[in-house]
Amino acid sequence: MPTSYSSYFYPLLKKHTTESEIKWLDSIPKDNPNALMTAFVKAPRFLSKTIIQEDVEDQNLIPNLPGFQVNHWNLVRLSRVWFLGFLVTLSKDELIEKIETLFDTAELNELVALFSSLPILPYPQVWLPRATDAVRSNMGFVFDAIALHNPFPYQEFPELAWNQLVLKTIFNEKPIQMIYGLSERKNQNLSISLISFVKERWSAGREVPANVWQLLVPYLSEGELYLVETLFKSRREEDVLAASLICSQSELNSYQLLGTKHPKFLEEIKNGKWDWSKLGNNH
Amino acid sequence: MCEKKSDLTTNPSHFENQNKTKDTPTHMDLQWNDYKDKIKGFKFFDPHIHMVSRTTDDYQNMAQAGIVAVIEPAFWVGQPRTGLSSFKDYYSSLVGWERFRSSQFGIKHYCTIGLNSREANNERLAEEVMEILPLYIYKEGVVGVGEIGFDDQTELEEKYYRLQLELAKEAKLPVQIHTPHRDKKRGTERSMSIAIEHGLDPSWVIVDHNNEETVKSVLDQGFYAAFTIYPFTKMGNKRMVSIVEQYGAERIMINSSADWGISDPLAIPKTAALMVNRGIPHDVIRKVTYENAIEAFAKSGQIQVSDFESSTPSDPNEKFHGNSVLRGGQLPKWNQNSLYID
Ligand SMILES: [Zn+2]
């Protein structure tokens, strides 16, 4: 039987609820799937939207689920995911039927909770089509729920879907540093798409977020050197910084040489003052 | 369900011009641009509009005219639905996509959920819809059961109207009643007496699409009387002003019911401008274009006035605040008055 992670949530719920709120949460029979589903829908009628703010930004809530974190969720979302956690004791068919029904009838915030819960549900392959579909969503909050601070795509997405997720995050001008496992899943195909994205943007007179370049570093060849030269000429300091980071990390001589021609940030990069994560915070 | 031939040719969804008279919209001779300034600083709440049929241009114009919140009642989208899935998708779009889309323009979107009277006549489908309604009416932002009531005043319409009144009672939600175009007076009376028979408190029931013939009885019995300003029909906004002059502001509210028919999503701000012009006090205007709708539908417990009262309209171009507050902005505003499209 799949494990329920719900016990990890309870101390947090207790901490962030009022007396009447926890009383309501306690009152839902956790072995009754229909009661859990109704509670999932009705939660906002009984709970506030208090934001869960913990100091443990990098700490995982569930030890063997790296990347799964509930920081900045509101209480309703946290409680909904908690409710869903109890459904895992159902048979596979029953569980799928219940979750699919919730998906089919969901409103915006329910969708957010459903996509947030995917990492704690068993049978990840069953939810994969829903998850890749969520990346196509035009509803920003739904997209965010799957793309940002969610380990499910990192764990389960095939390369094509993963690359779509990263590209769309950039396209939508959302912070890529919030994608869990971003660096680990860099790949050649992604870099090819990104290079054409950069060219397209530049020819339209638009900009590209500077931290996007971190995904390209291992895949840049001599042929793309001119792109980095262009980047050095940018009026935006973060672009120059990105170009400097590329050159300091590249294994190609031509890039290293280009870097020495623009020494402005080199020393500071060596001293560890700058890395890619510092470029993402301008958003 | 079979539509009459007249429906197929003219077919406005909320009003029908049975006599085929050439009504001129009463506000045609006044230039809206000249009147915009009259309502500067007003906030409007449109408690009845079908945004699923409207464009993003409408949202932009509505936001500019001061509309801060809307209610979208579930209704007939013109094309009859053939299966339960279409209903599910429609209801889901009301609580999902449409709500998101409006938020992009700084407009708070609520909805009422129900099986509409026209489609109550398809019994097989109606039965199926009734089964899934409970999954929707308890959702966040669902402020009532609606719009329900009569169209042709058939037995099936009455059956599902009654069932949905019971549902509303159980869920402690207000009811939004669509009154019929044909035989309106009798249909309105019948709707009200059935609601009372089911034990509903009239102050929880909003009777829609009223006119001079129905308003007195609706108000006298303690219901809310909503008025739809819809061009080329019997209720224009000049007459609306007279109704407010005669009956005051208590339990009266104005809406656009804008949909796929020839309708005007700015009906409320335009009517408000007309009222300002006619010297109606601002607090009266505020009641019939904003406060009464909130008062009536907030009984659902689903309206947070602070969501649209205090905040400045959201700017979709706004970026993330630090790294924590996620916004969904994907449809930036742009300057429609510019020749350049950038
Ligand atoms: Zn309507």
UniProtKB/TrEMBL annotation, chain A:
Superkingdom as given in the UniProt entry: Bacteria
InterPro entries documented for this protein: EboA_dom
NCBIfam families assigned to the protein according to its UniProt record, in alphabetical order: EboA_domain (NF035938)
Name of the protein: Molybdate metabolism regulator
Organism encoding this protein: Leptospira ellinghausenii
From TrEMBL, chain B:
Pfam families: TatD_DNase (PF01026)
Region annotation Disordered: where it falls in the sequence: 1-27, 307-329
Record's keyword annotation contains Transferase: no
Keywords: Hydrolase
GO molecular function annotation: hydrolase activity, acting on ester bonds
Comp. bias intervals (Basic and acidic residues): 17-26
Source organism, top-level taxon: Bacteria
Record has Plastid as a keyword: no
Name of this protein: Metal-dependent hydrolase
Source organism of the structure: Leptospira ellinghausenii
